[in-house]
Design a protein that fits this description.
488 residues; alpha/beta; Neutral Protease, domain 2; Nuclear Transport Factor 2, Chain: A; six-stranded mixed β-sheet; four-stranded antiparallel β-sheet; 17 helices; elongated; binds zinc ion; Peptidase MA-like domain-containing protein
Length: 488
């Protein structure tokens, strides 16, 4: 999350699920509601950026790829009751548990075969094979399947895999089953993994609701969107036609236009350079930026409830359900707010978010004040801003006699927090104070020490080793610093 100076103050939100905070995301995702719910339309204060982590949506899995699939094939090929309708999913007919199990294996086998053909077509870039897997009678999905294939062609896709996770024969409402027709239709939860070559160490993952229909003995995919549960993220390449622009250090994926994608490449590349100047070059020095065209697309990518991010300029998310190092991380921009941001504002927000990417903030134990304060410190080092506008809310509070008693805690960064701007502003100035006292490299050393620490005393140890003082002693120095800056 990043905040902004003057140029149309915006705020993004930090969904660092990292610290076990929650975000209005699926299940227990990290960018959680109490952290992130709708932000009070407070006078937008500078920038705040968001880091997101997630907690998996617990789903049992049956692997479709390779051997697993072969195993299923054998089971499925085992002689069954020849009279039993194939893959019968008609709950009316009284079926024994064995029948149901066999039918379940048949569905996973048939569905798995369709998914395998789809994945193979993506890898071999064979459009007709890909469209061959799509239900010929599902014209709307056929159209979006064409867009999906075209999108995947534009992306530097390395690994692309589906995994048949589970299915639910009762999930499709009767009118939908009737509409599909065929001898069988059902909804499955399918995990899709896709890796952007040159950007991702590990593939991104999401759970897709895939509808299958069997017609004349052949099974097809008939939809990727029959039912999403709250918090379920949607891959950007399923949300509409993409335009992709590649920079030296960035990949910009726009749902709006080629021109927009190209326009952001330079800003994103520059953000990477600015971050490396402070953080060093010991990171991949690459960023992937999503530019949704609509608020709903931003929420879809994040699996967020509607209007969670109305006041959030940008979000940094790990496109996985489990926070982990090496997770594929994306910067997701808020289309509306980003448009309102001036050139300077966009640079600051992207530099802030890129700092989260470089410091793997989506999988880090650092306290939020340090993650956010440091990201702002790097952003304002790259794009200097007057203290008066960058710390406007905080100075106002201090001049009114309210000097922060302690460094902002996790709740202070909740999207709904009334003093969110002050939390960011005071965190930024805490980090700047460390840099002013001990030098920029000491601040980076401090951040890295806390980030690398596995112990609960990591922060206290870093205060001692880097600043030679306790957190309490630092807070006293910081309060003096804030008063001096605010002129009281
Ligand atoms: Zn942030």
């Amino acid at each position: 999350m990043s905040r902004l100076t003057g140029a149309g103050e915006q705020r993004g939100v930090e969904v660092i699920d990292e610290q076990g905070d929650t975000v209005p995301m699926p299940a227990v995702e990290h960018l959680g509601p109490d952290q992130l719910g709708p932000v009070e339309p407070k006078s937008p204060s500078p920038f705040s950026g968001v880091i997101v982590k997630k907690v998996a949506i617990g789903l049992a899995v049956v692997l479709v790829a390779g051997a697993g699939y072969a195993g299923l094939r054998q089971v499925a090929d085992a002689p069954t009751d020849p009279n039993a309708p194939v893959g019968s999913h008609d709950p009316q007919t009284s079926t024994t548990p064995d029948d149901e199990a066999a039918a379940g294996v048949q569905r996973a086998t048939d569905g798995g075969a369709v998914l395998q053909a789809m994945a193979d077509a993506v890898k071999s870039e064979n459009r007709s094979d890909f469209l061959e897997t799509v239900d010929p009678q599902s014209t709307a999905f056929k159209a979006s399947a064409r867009t999906i294939f075209a999108n995947l062609e534009q992306l530097p896709i390395g690994i692309f895999q589906f995994r048949y996770v589970s299915d639910d024969i009762a999930a499709l409402p009767p009118d939908r089953t009737a509409e599909l027709g065929g001898t069988a239709s059902w909804l499955a939860q399918v995990e899709v993994s896709w890796q952007l070559t040159g950007y991702d160490v590990k593939p991104a993952r999401a759970i897709l609701p895939v509808t299958f229909v069997t017609r004349d003995g052949k099974t097809y995919a008939a939809s990727f969107s029959d039912r999403f549960v709250a918090g379920q993220r949607r891959p950007v390449w399923t949300l509409g036609a993409l335009d992709v622009a590649k920079g030296n250090r960035s990949l910009v994926i726009s749902l709006k236009s080629e021109a927009q994608a190209k326009a952001y490449v330079a800003v994103a590349d520059r953000a990477v350079t600015s971050v490396s100047k402070v953080w060093g070059k010991a990171w991949p020095q690459k960023v992937v930026v999503y530019l949704p065209a609509k608020q709903s697309q931003m929420e879809a990518v994040l699996g967020a409830a509607p209007n969670t991010y109305t006041q959030i300029a940008a979000v940094t998310m790990a496109e996985l359900d489990q926070p982990q190092t090496g997770a594929p991380v994306r910067i997701v921009a808020n289309p509306k707010l980003f448009e309102e941001l001036g050139k300077q504002g966009r640079r600051i927000v992207l530099t802030h978010e890129t700092t989260h990417v470089a410091s793997t903030a989506t999988a880090s134990p650092v306290p939020l004040w340090l993650a956010e304060g440091f990201a702002d410190y790097v952003a304002f080092t790259a794009v200097p801003v007057q203290d008066e506008s960058a710390a406007k809310e905080l100075f106002k509070a201090i001049r009114a006699g309210k000097v922060p008693a302690a460094l902002p805690d996790t709740n202070a960064f909740a999207a709904s927090s009334a003093d969110l701007s002050q939390a960011y502003e005071s965190a930024w100035l805490a980090c700047r104070l460390i840099a002013e006292r001990e030098g920029q490299s000491a601040l980076v050393k401090f951040y890295r020490a806390v980030h690398a620490s596995k112990s609960s005393t990591g922060l206290a140890d870093a205060f001692k080793s880097t600043l030679g003082m306790t957190e309490q002693e630092f807070v006293v120095e910081w309060q003096k610093y804030l008063r001096r800056l605010a002129g009281v």
